[in-house]
Every structure is written in C-alpha cells, then in structure tokens.
Design brief:
46% of the residues lie in helices and 3% in strands. The protein has 16 helices and 4 strands. It has a two-stranded antiparallel ribbon with strand order 1-2. It has a two-stranded antiparallel sheet with strand order 3-4. A hairpin with a 5-residue loop joins strand 3 and strand 4. The longest helix has 32 residues.
Length: 424
C-alpha cells in the first residue's frame, strides 16, 4: 500500500472535478456519443456476466435517457451529485479526521497546538500567537516570510489547473488511441481528444484554489519547520510519492478543491481550551490553578464564543500559545498564586554564605553556557527543584550584571530573587 499511498498513508484522488480512475471521468456526467458513454455501456454489459462486476448497480433506462436528452448526470441516492462526487466528499471528510489525529500524535503537539487551532478558527494575526524569537526561527528554516509563503502556496494551487488539463489529455490519448501521452498523437488525434474534453463547459473548471491559500500557508508556516508534511494533507497526486508514475512533473499543490472546511474544522478542534481550563481548575498545584483562572477570565471578558474568531477564545488561545512556545524554549512564565503579593520588597539582610556561593556558580555557568538551557533543564518550575532566579531568555548574549541577579532569603529560608533594577 505504501508504494502509492506513502509511508504516512493517505487517500490518493485526482484533481477536482476530473477523476481518471472512474467512469465517467468528469463529475459523473455522460454525453451522447462520447468515449466515456461507450466505455460506460461496455462496463454495463460486462457486469451482467462478470462474477465481480455483477454487484454494481447502474441507473435504470440510462441509455434511453441519454439518447433522448443528449446528457445525463448520474444520480446518487436521490442527490443531485453523483457517486463520484459523493465518494470525493466522503474521502475529504475522513481525510480531515485522519489529519487531526496525526497532529495529536505528533511529538511537537503541545508546543504548537494552540497556534494551529487559533489560525483554524480565524483568530487573526499570527504574531499574537507565536513569540518573535520563534517566528524568526520558523522563517529561517522556511527561507520565507509568511507573505512569501502565502504567495508560494497560491502559485502551487493554481498550477493544478495545468496539471489537470494535461492529465485529461494523456488519459484520453491512452483510452482512445492506446498512446502513451497526448504529445505522441498526430494532429487529427489531438483534435479528437480536445473535442472530448471540451464536450463539457466546466471541463477545465478549477476549484483547487481561490481564497484558501492564506490558511494553508499559515499551517505550512507553523508546522513544516517542525517536520509536519502539510503537502501530504492534499489528496491530489503530487511528487511526494515518486513511485506513483502518473505525470509526476508537478510538485505539491496543497489543494483541497471546495472542501477545505472538511480539513479546517477537524484541525481547529485538536485542542479544547474550555475543557483544559476546567480540568486545570481542579489541580492541587496553586500555580496551575492561578494560570487557569487567568485564562478563564480571558474567555469570559471576550463575550460569547463562536467557532470562527468569536469571543474570548482567541485571547485565551493567544495566552496559552505564547506560554507553550516559551516553555518549549525553556522559559516558564509562572503566575502569582492567590494570596501572594506579586511585588514584595527585597530583604536587606546580608546574604548568607550558601547564597553567595550559588551566585558565583550561576555567573560562572552563564559565562560558559551563554543560553541558560543547562540550568533551566532543572530549575524551570518543577516543584521538586528550587526555582532559582535565572533571567529567562534575556540571559543569552548579555553582560554578566544583566545575566544574573543575587539571591536573597525569605522568612521561610528559601532563596528568592532580589529586585535589582535592570540597566536600560
């Protein structure tokens, strides 16, 4: 299966609304005296005696209707769309659910889940959800800004129009003249192929682009530097799978026809902020409870929630997303638990010998290890380890005075950060 469907298995479908692997080829439409009509009626005859094909159900009096009207749209269970369109809709629905589950299973899920949900719910500017340092790192890996990535995505989506037309030509060349591709035909044969394609006014219809490149580009921006293959979300055949020998000169197209919502909705549901806050409020850790209360306040202050960018959900997602990215870089912002004054004045008692030694050690470490990761691995909020007063992300590249602050003792004897003014 992986030969065609890739290591990360996904459905392979053709460019809407032309599907080379089914009959009729184009949106369940049959035209009188067309190549597809002949192939379709041949299949009906074979099905009468074939032990496998006999289970297929064909529309009644289809030949008479086609002869009378010159055109027939195959039905599906009384719906206006036919079985091909119906299958495409089903595949898109299941594909969206598969994508959402694959994101939940990804090792980086806790870091970027809120940003993904926020962008899927129309929560506005990505800058509000990803810290500047992380956005700089993402753009460095991508080699593009978000605006450039959006333009690249739109260009790739538009390329499918040419991709689809070429596949149509090559398919009819094989079916009608048993030739490898359209380029192998003589002039008369090419005219015959084009006549088949142009029977239908929407034969070259392109619903693979037009307005969804912004969301797709944001998903690429957030996820591709983290190793998530966003191009694999599209069901359109592309160069992700070189073993599929079907005109593979086109690259990934990031296309979803007119069914983007079948992908966007499940992806926007990979994290339930309301449920998370509800669970965190029950925690025995006062720090977790304090943070949950702060996020709950953001939810309430924003008013009623709707799916697309409504209410305080975007504000809560922004706060949680910023914390998640900072935590992934070893920076932990901790709210002040209830009942504790946030700005206690510094003690003036002389530092004891233990604290003086700790200060010297911290300065020495930071001179050797400019990023404080070596320290923050242990001293980053784990309640089993003393929360020493490192200066978060601003330690890197700064002078020693700015890199550390002296420890002082509280009444309980535990080290606490002294409120030393920072240089401007």
């Amino acid at each position: 299966c992986q030969t065609c469907h890739g290591k990360e298995l996904r459905p392979n479908w053709d460019a809407y609304n032309f599907w080379a692997g089914q009959l009729p080829f184009n949106r369940d439409q049959l035209f009188k005296d067309s190549v597809e009509a002949k192939l379709y009626f041949d299949l009906m005859e074979r099905a009468k005696t074939d032990p496998r094909l006999k289970y297929l159900v064909f529309p009644e009096d289809i030949k008479e209707r086609l002869e009378r009207a010159g055109f027939v749209q195959l039905p599906h269970d009384g719906e206006s769309d036919g079985p091909g369109v119906h299958m495409f809709d089903q595949l898109a629905d299941f594909n969206g659910k598969k994508i959402a589950q694959s994101l939940k299973d990804d090792p980086g899920f806790q870091k970027w889940k809120y940003a993904v949900v926020a962008m899927s719910r129309g929560c506005g500017d990505l800058k509000n959800f990803i810290p500047d340092a992380d956005r700089a790192a993402l753009e460095k890996k991508l080699g593009m800004t978000l605006d450039q990535l959006t333009a690249d995505t739109a260009k790739r989506q538009q390329s499918l129009r040419d991709f689809k037309e070429e596949r149509q030509k090559n398919l009819f060349a094989r079916v009608m003249f048993a030739k490898k591709d359209f380029a192998s035909l003589d002039d008369e044969q090419k005219k015959a192929v084009m006549a088949e394609i142009e029977r239908r006014p929407d034969g070259r219809e392109n619903k693979e682009s037009g307005g969804n490149e912004e969301w797709v580009a944001k998903m690429r921006y957030i996820l591709e530097p983290e190793g998530v293959v966003v191009s694999n979300w599209s069901m359109s055949l592309d160069s992700n799978y070189p073993n599929v020998k079907l005109d593979m000169k086109y690259g990934p197209t990031y296309t979803f026809a007119d069914l983007l919502e079948n992908i966007q909705r499940p992806v926007g549901g990979i994290a339930d902020v309301n449920k998370e806050i509800e669970d965190e409020l029950k925690s025995s850790d006062p720090t977790v409870v304090a943070q949950a209360e702060a996020d709950q306040k953001l939810l309430k202050e924003g008013g009623a929630q709707s799916y697309y960018g409504g209410g305080g959900i975007c504000n809560a997602l922004a706060a949680r997303s910023q914390r998640a990215y900072n935590k992934a870089r070893g920076i932990v912002a901790r709210p002040t638990p209830a009942g504790v004054k946030p700005d206690c004045p510094p003690k003036t008692d002389p530092l004891d010998e233990t604290t003086k030694v700790a200060n010297k050690v911290s300065v020495a470490l930071l001179k050797v290890y400019k990023p404080p990761a070596v320290c923050l691995k242990c001293h980053s909020g784990d309640k089993s380890v003393t929360d020493f007063a490192f200066d978060d992300k601003e330690t890197s590249g700064a002078d020693d005075k700015r890199q550390t602050r002296p420890f002082q003792r509280t009444a309980g004897g535990t080290p606490r950060r002294a409120r030393t003014p920072r240089p401007p």
